[in-house]
Amino acid sequence: MVIVVSARASYWVSPKPSLTTTTLYLDRDYLIDQVYWQSIAHFVDRHEVKAYFETDYTNRSQLLRLDPRQVAEISMWLDELEDLSRAGIAPEQFWRAQALFSSVLDMLLPQLSARDRQAAEWRRRLALAERTGAVLARSDERLLLALRREARQALELLHSDLERRWKLKDLAASVHLSESQLGRLFIAAVGMSPIAYLTVIRVEQMAHLLRTTDAPVSEIAARVGWGDPGFAARQFRRALSVSPLEYRMMCLHRHGIVGLR
User: Which residues pair with 151 in a beta bridge?
Assistant: First the structure.
C-alpha cells in the first residue's frame, strides 16, 4: 500500500506491527522538472507542467494498493535507496539513487488518478479548517505525543542489541518501568508494542543483510535474534510478501548478477 500526500497537507502515521514504513519527501520543483524532461514532447516548458499538476492532480492524498509482486519490487528499491541515503548520497552513487527513484515513480505515477471527484469537497473542508483552526482527521487518529525519555531509551536498547532474546520484563527493568507502563509509553510513542517493534526492525535488518551479504538465511536469522530460521522466514514473508530467498534472488536479478558467469 502506498499513500501519496501533496505538499502542505497535514498527516500522521501509526505503523502496524506487520508493516515497514518508508517515507519519501519529494521537492515539488524537482518532481516538476523530472516530469518535464521525461515528457518534453508534450509540454512547452516546466510552467505548463506545473499548471498540469495544479489542474489535474487536485486531490491532496491518494491511496494506491499494489499487488504482492509490486510490493516486493518497490520494497527492494526503497530499501536500497534508504541505504544510499543514510549517510548522504555520494557523488558516485547519484545515478544509482536516481535510477531507483525513477523506478519508484515509474510504478506509482501511472496509478495516480487525476481530477478526483472528491477533490472539490476536500478543498471546501480544507478551507473551512484553515478558517476555524480545525484539523482534518478521522476520529480514530491520535495526536503524536512527545517521546518520553524511557521510551527513547527502550528504542535505543532494541536497536543496539538486536541479537538479544528480548523479553518485555527485561526491557522494562532496563528502563525502570513496569511492563504495563512501558507498553503504554511505547504504543503512544511508535504505535505498537515493544515486541512488535522488535519484529519490524529485525525484518529490516534481515533485508539489509540479504542485500549486502551472501550469508545463509539461518545465519542472518541468528544475527538478528531469531534462532529458528523457519520462524524468521515466516516473519519476513508476513512483512514483505516474499520469502528471504525470493527477496535475495530479486536483488541479484536487479543487479544483473544471476545468470552471469
Answer: none
Residue where the block lists cell 515513480: 105
CA distances from 234 to 34, 107, 230 (A): 39, 27, 6
- Percent of the chain whose pLDDT exceeds 90: 19
Rounded to whole angstroms, the Cα distance separating 240 from 236 reads 6
Burial of 80 (0-12, 13-18, 19+ CB in 10 A): buried
| pTM to 2 decimal places | 0.50
Domains detected in the chain: 2-115 (no CATH), 149-254 (1.10.10.60)
Helix residue ranges, H only, 115-167: 119-132, 149-160
- Nearest CA among 194, 191, 198 for reference residue 182: 194
Residue type at 32 in one-letter notation: I
Q: Cα–Cα distance between 249 and 244 in angstroms, integer?
A: 9
Asked if 136 and 125 touch (Cβ cutoff 8 Å), the reply is yes
186-230 pLDDT, tens per residue? 887 777 889 999 998 899 889 889 988 899 999 999 999 999 999
Dihedral angle over CA of 66, 70, 75, 78, nearest 10 = -90
Parallel, antiparallel or unpaired: strands 61-64 and 2-5: antiparallel
Q: What is the DSSP string of 164-202?
A: S---HHHHHHHTT--HHHHHHHHHHHHSS-HHHHHHHHH
